[in-house]
Amino acid sequence: MYEWRYARDKLFAALITAMSILAVLPLFHVIAIVVYNGSKPVLEAGARFLVDIPPTPLSKDLGGVGPALVGSFLITLISMPITIMLALLAAILENEFPHSRLSKTVDALSRSLASVPTIIVSMVVYSTLVVPMRGFSALAGATALTLVSFPYAYTAFTSALGSVPRTYREAAYAIGINRWKTVFSVFIPIARKAIVAGILLTFARAMGETAALFFTVGRYRSGISLNPLSPTDALPLLIFDFITSPFRSYHEIAWGASFVLFVLYLAIFITVKTAVKEVRL
Amino acid sequence: MSWSRTDKLFFISLLPSAIIVTGLLGLFLFVVLIHSWDSILAYGARLFVESVWNPEKELYGILSPIIGTLLTSLIATCTALVFSVSLSIFVVEYLNKRVQNIFVPIIELMGGVPTIVYAIWALHYLVPFMKASIMEPLHKYLGFIPLFSCQPTTGFSILIAGIAIGIPLIPYTTSIIVESYKLVPLTYKEACLGIGATKYELVKVMLAIIKPAIIASAILSFARASGETTIAVTTVGNAMSTSVCIIGPGYTVPALLASQYANANLYQYAESVLYAAALTILLLTLVLSFIGLRILEKWRVRIVV
Amino acid sequence: MYITITVIAILVTIVTYSVIHVYFASEKAPTTTIPQDASTYSTTNPSSRLPVIRGAGASFQYPQIAQWARLFQEKTGIPITYQSVGSGAGQRMFLVDRVVDFAASDPPLSKSQWEEHKNRVLQVPWMMGAVAVVYNVPSVGGTLNLSGEVLAKIYLGEVEYWDDAAIVALNPTIADKLPHQPIVAVHRSDSSGTTEIFTLFLHKSAPDKWSSDLVGKQVDWPVDRSGRGVGAKGNEGVTAVVLQTAYSIGYVELSYAIEHGLPVAAIKNAAGKFVLPSEMSIQNAARGVIFPSSPQDDLSYTLYEVVYSPSEDAYPIATLAYGFFWAKYEDREVAKAVSEFLKWIVQEGYNYMIKGYTPPPQEAQRLLVAAARIIEENSAR
Prior knowledge:
By secondary structure, chain A is mainly alpha-helical. Chain A has helices at 3-45, 66-96, 101-114, 118-133, 138-162, 166-174, 179-190, 192-208, 235-243, 248-275. The longest helix of chain A is centred in the N-terminal third of the chain and has 43 residues, at 3-45. A two-stranded antiparallel sheet of chain B has the order 1-2. Chain B is 74% helix and 3% strand. In chain B, helix 3 (63-94) packs antiparallel against helix 10 (211-227). By secondary structure, chain C is α/β, with parallel strands linked by helices. Helix content of chain C is 40%, strand content 16%. In chain C, the strands form two sheets. In chain C, strands 2-1-3-11-4-8-6-7 form an eight-stranded mixed β-sheet. Chain C is globular and about 65 Å long. The N and C termini of chain C lie far apart (68 Å). Classes of the chains: A mainly alpha, B mainly alpha, C alpha/beta. Chains A and B meet through helix 1, helix 2, helix 3, helix 4 and helix 5 of A and helix 1, helix 3, helix 4, helix 5 and helix 7 of B.
């Protein structure tokens, strides 16, 4: 009598499968392009690719992306903890006191920040940090990255904490746990997979961000620098600079750098994901 | 409501980070406002209703990029949402546990590709492909609709830019929706299946439950799409056009910025106009997201368990 | 659990390997490793032992400056950083914000800018480049001859097809290979010095067709209105569009044309000859320009004069590119390093030019030497 319900169900399944394949195809294609174009220079240059400085148009060697790799690490290492901490606390505020004016303000500000073209972020950080400091620095780059990645972390964390069912909150209060402990011992552990996913996505955003580092980080490519107060380089910036130039060696370095970036992300991704277990409700 | 002492202390302990965040973001917006003030005073409303860019003669009108930004962001958000909701449903309902644990990380991995790589990929692969397979047929058969009335010469257009911006958004929105989906208690699923619902009907119920997450990620996707620079500047065609046709070249505010920042300070008002454009998009996104959240509030199903 | 351990082990190995390499840089001398004396300081604050020369500006000059910087660093250990943020941003970083030690700009300081910074800024025209007109017409095998007037008509939208009488008149030998196809005219959509040079050339060679209104870093191209105009971002954008679109024509920096193997047109110069861009023909364009005797003088007219130069064998769309330096640097180490760099460019740097970049003529090179002397003298006080 209700065959049409089952027919609709089958149609739906077919539609969803088709859409999913269509969605995944471009993503796979991009990854394939990166691996195909990027693995050649990296394998040619070997592990030196991770340490050497980039070539110049007349160089015979392929060189490497050492300064950019170390720089990206440095900048991300400085900016990530700050972003995560701020975003997590702001998300907790939003979750616990959703009607307070403060949390609504933070919400609105975060969303408007996400819509700012990132090159403006770098121009603002330039005029407020680089000019007074009389020089470019990894710190300025990290500040720009924090501003850019905050909205993502914030949205991911609010989603994660908001998806925890109310029953747990009521249960925790019922046995007398105070509010701080509920958040840290009940909500966060339950939502930990979602929170970790949020952290990883924020990390991905931070490592792949180009325009925010434009006027902030200094593009110091002649050597490896570990000082946060002096200029450094970053992988996405290097990719951008080199891929828009006409030279083939520059293009190869750019693809190799994309490949390195991807593999790096992959390694950290796998490590973190395997360490965190899922929670079944 | 009267708060207990512990509640008050709790609130106060969360204040420092909220204040830092508000301060930082507020300061940022303030700086953008200051820098754009000059041109707004000098040009007034003309800046926002005309469409011209001639820095040599100090003539500016940013209507075209503003409209272009809204259009591309809309297309991008729709693309991202449609695909990521489908993807999330597919992953959670139609795949078994083991395949899920491989598939989901792969999708989230896609989020780690820098946007510049997407831009290059779009330039060399997506644009030629879509021009031949979608845009030219659209113009040939549906050319009477104003949306498709212009001839696609190179394929760079608002439509392509919207789709190219939407694709890298898919991993992010999928991840949020999948995680929220998995956090819905099993009881709902069991209840639905217990009364004989088909998978389709089950999915309808689940989507209604996680609607807040979907809307939140949609709003953030819209905001991010408005700010996306590298992909936009490579695919949108960079032409000041106010025609309603989406398969011809256009402009977005980030693309305008990326194209003009280099020499902007050689002119008197150019830089200030660029800041003003960014400010406009900022305010527009704010307004639109408020409307979106209002709609969310009205539909919010209070799940009392 | 074991997967985690394995992955962490791999990461630790990679990191240790890299750290070892950084601290004990090898003694082999491929041109890209950090020379011994620089490596010891490179992992500490770059401004602690040797000075760093920081520059910013035009993306056109980036590859050549990067090449010079690398060779200079190998010789003296002093690193030079350069950010290709655009001429405008570079000028601002140098003149206003003082966050860099030198700027590289495609246009020289305008008269009013020079007045503002009178005697404090040194301008050196330290390299030359050219704008190449590239085309993609599959049936044409050899070189196409074009003139400023024909190009102006193409970009005005008046010449529509490749077999137009005006083009045929310039190319009688290959007239039969010119197809009856509409010309797709590619131009820049972003603000750029390349556009400024190209439009200046069109105006100087065909002033009655291409008015001075249409000269600048960013113009309203009349050909867009006919639907056959395309705007692309950056030199790489124009290159990509011309490569991908048959029957298109565009203008790019010479190095892009060379590296991508695009066919380059021979352009009719002021003396009536059809010239291809080459090191000789580019330098010839600057031979007629009278450079001032001191880098502290006004150079604002030099760029105008080098385009469509009256010299016999000059390439008409050649450009000069400039470096801006302070006459007096507060930091004595930086002043010494900068003057060393300028002297090195004249003595050795000009032997290492990248394809598409040319040294300026002798009269201009004297300005670099003069600049080095001025900087040294001022820092000694």
